[in-house]
Fold this protein.
Amino acid sequence: MKTKKLFAIFGNPVSHSRSPLMHNHVFKRLGVNACYTRIHLEEGKDFKTRFFSQKLSGANITVPHKEAAFHACDEVRGFAQKVGVVNTVINEDGRLIGYNTDADGFLFAIEAFSHIKNVLIIGAGGTAKALSMRLLEEGLDVSVLNRSQPNLKYFSELGLQTYTWENCPVKAYDLIVNTTSAGLSDEAYPAPIALLSDLLKSSSFAADAIYGKLTPFLKRCKELDIVYKDGADMLLGQGVLANNYFTNEEFSLQEIEKAMKESFAF
Ligand code: NDP
C-alpha cells in the first residue's frame, strides 16, 4: 500500500486559512491518498527544516513567509523566478521546488471586471510583487501605494509609480487592490481613511486579497457603492493551480476546480 502523502500550509497567522479544507476536499473527491494540515511558523528561516522534519510532499506558504520560502528553495520554476516570491513548494526527491500560483489566481479572480487598464495596488509585500509583475505582463498600468518606503524600492526599480501615504495623489484607477494584511486579524484600513476614500470614489472596481470577512477596506467600498470582491476567487484560483502541482498534473484543472469549489460551501 502506498503511504499517505502529507501537505501543509505555513504562515503566521495561519489559523484562518481555508487551504486545508479546500485541498482535503479535492483529495477526497478525486481519490488521492493525501492529507493537508496547517503549520504555524514564527520564523521564515525555519521553513525548510520544518518542511523536511514533517516529511511533507508539498506545501503552501502564506503571510509573511513567501519571500523566505523563495530563498529556501533548491530550484524555483516559472513565474516565481521573476518575482522572488513562492507560495507553493513540492518535494521532488528531497529537493525543494518553488512555484508561484498567486498571480494567475488573481487574474482568474478579476476576469469578471471589464476594461481594466490601470491598477493601484495597496501594499508592497510578496503578494503585491506577484500581482504587479503579472499585471505588467498583461500590459496594464500599475501603481503601488505602501505605508512605508523601503519595500517600494523593488517597484520603483521596475519603473512603476510608487507612493507612500504622505505623497499619494488622488487620481482615477480602474481597479484598486488591497494586498496588505491590514484587516486580516485586526480592523485596520490599509491606508488613512481620508486618502482611501478619495481614491475609492474615483475608481471603478476594488478587490481585497483577504477572504472570508468584510475587511474595513471592503466595508468602505460597500459604503461608497463600488463594485468589489474579496479574495475568495483568488484563493480558489491559486489553490487549483497548487493542487495541480501536488497531484502531479494527474487531473485536469477543471476537475480540480469543480471539487475545490464545493468546499467553499462549507
Ligand atoms: P507581506 O507580509 O509580504 O506584505 C504585507 C504588506 O502589507 C506590506 O507591504 C506591509 O507594509 C503592509 N501592511 C501590513 N500591515 C499593514 C497595516 N496595518 N497597514 C498598512 N499596510 C500594512 O504579506 P503577503 O503579501 O504575503 O500577504 C498580504 C495579504 O494578502 C495577507 O492578508 C494574505 O492573507 C493575503 N493573500 C491572499 C491570497 C488569496 O488567495 N486570497 C493569496 C495571497 C495573499 P510594510 O511594507 O510597510 O511593512
